[in-house]
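Supplementary Data S3. Sequence and structure tokens for construct A.
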Amino acid sequence: MSFSSEVKEELSHQMGAARHCQIAELSALIGMCGSVLISASNRYSLKIYTENLTVARKCFTLLQKTFNICCDVSVRLQKRDARGSQIFTILVRQHEDVMRVLQALKLLQDDGEIMEQVSPANQLLVQNSCCRRAFIRGAFLAAGSVSDPVKSYHFEIACSSRARAEQLQMLIHPFGPDARIVQRKKYHIVYIKEGAQIVDMLNIMEAHVSLMNLENIRIVREMRNAVNRKVNCEAANISKTVSAAVKQVEDIRYLQRVRGLDSLPDNLADIAQLRLENPDATLKELGMMLTPAVGKSGVNHRLRKLSRMAEELRQN
């Protein structure tokens, strides 16, 4: 099972305690993957389509728990194409039951007509913080996904309209995560790509087990990255030190050939001889070998002076 499936499986069992939270979550689910059918006799029926069993189970449970219409809900499993993809269809047949659901979800206008379903959900449904959490949870169950955190960090919810995506973004922002919107084909994607913010999203949706699993993976990844950065830094420093030492030895040998080390001042001659005898020693180690001992900056100053003298001789 993928990490995204694990999150949805956990969320399918997460139920808001209050009826208004359950209605908010159902509003997101129906808005994302539901449709209202009108018969020739002007009778309404409600259909919810999903390829995810956990989403179908959550819709069924919410309709039963919130409106007590389980006897009028059917779930069908059908083959969609040659690959054998599964589609779960939840059907509310009774006109009166559909009217109750639409009224609770604020999808009926004053004249009894159904509002455009690709529009944002009614703000009255998401006034409370708990209802906003439930709505975000329902939207993710219906049209969301999260990548395997071992490979990358990516959280997204696909919306059918720009207005719906902007509403979802507006609901997420007060909780902290910086959700962004990008268009992909005919969908508007609300996405988050930072690991800590995806942790916050799981907390908002109350997927606490998945949150802990993600945190454990993040800790391991961050430790591995920290070790890699330290190793790379040390390797770069070693390479830099070795290159500098090789250049210093070359300059000193050039001075030795051209004018001899005896012509140098005592302090420069001493450090030059030590560098030739200890090509792998650090600046600190070279300074400790001198009498009296000299610090790293003093050793570095003398070696730089030797290099400048060698360069001047080469130019002349």
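Construct B, processed identically:
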Amino acid sequence: MEFKSVDDLKAAVGAAACEGQVCEIADAKALSSDVIERLAFNAGVNADAQVKELARSVIKGVAAALGIYSASIQGLYEAMGAGEVTGLTVPAINIRGLTYDTARAVFRAGAKNNSNAFIFEIAKSEIGYTEQRPAEYTVSILAAAIREGYKGPVFIQGDHFQVSLKGYEADKAAEIEALKALIKEAIEGEFYNIDIDASTLVDLDRPTVTDQQRPNFEITAFMTSYIRELEPEGVTVSIGGEIGEVGSQNSTEEELRAFMDGYLDLVGNRHKGISKISVQTGTSHGGVVLPDGTIASVSVDFDTIEKLSKVSREVYGISGVVQHGASTLPDDDFHLFRKREASEVHLATGFQNMVYDSASFPAQLKAEVYAYLKENMKAEWGEGVTEEQFLYKTRKKGFGPFKEKMWRLPRETRDAIGAELEDRFDYLFKQLNSVNTLEKMKKYVGE
């Protein structure tokens, strides 16, 4: 799989001419699936920094030549906010491991449904423990699009670009600078959709709802202005805000209005504001794990979704509310998101579970991951927590250390897991009505 050198890579792709890290490819359409996969592999795990960077550059160049490009979903969300698009909930899919193979499955499901209304995302925390910086994540997705013959906009999102309450209280300036650095890296890595999460700073002990939300809307407004300064010419980054930290109490209309009114007072008419807002409706990230390792049933407050989405659109002109922590919900719930007009649903842990629990995932590798977690994540094994609960909560942190081993799984193994994921994505696209979207996207986003 490895390219042994820069010259080895150039020969494999038929580079006609190269200047620095930019190469002209003689015939982008003629690149074989094997070469695309090798490029994706080397863009992620090659130990030679020059080879890795050239692989990333070639993937981006080939994608551009084939009409594949990273884009903002802003236009579609503005149409939702104006009531021109209804009955569609956009799935936002966090990919923690087997990124290239999982993204391929997403693109195949999109093709089955004549859809390109889906987002690939990775959270601030996931960037760390999965060892996927923005530049790597983007080229993994673009390589998958090339491999599957996709053409058009690809939506890549920074999820939960979060302010740490602990870090903020210890050193406010350092915490803000760290988040700014991540945003800059993300935009340079072609993340043109970014969710700012300062809901961690909401202080429910303050006397009024506006005061409770004040640090949240102040930081979100500040980061909005910062993003607008960095976005490339011709791109309006789609920005999300958040009013209720997932796992806490359900959000209210009063909180939504307090946040939006305070936020808009600060943003004013200087530039575009947020296009969506995340709320809490009773879910938690990854679900609530029972002692035997199974997930407890959760009741989503769909009335809150409907009510707050309506206020978001009709009063503030944004697309609606975003639901986090949804991938482990019962299947019967998913159609209700688009029925109640949620604009976006974030899906992560369920796909991770499908990878680890697939009959095709090697038992020996799974045992290695679990042994690593029990040795290296002991500090996260709280008192009274069963082994099943511990492993379920921490196995997401196996994707980074075992990234290369997962990449090196036989192709037939990765294809089998990808086929299972494709079936799941196909089901979710239909439930969320992310189907037959090509004309809508052409109208509101571009070709």
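Residues 6-65 form one domain. The radius of gyration is 21 Å.
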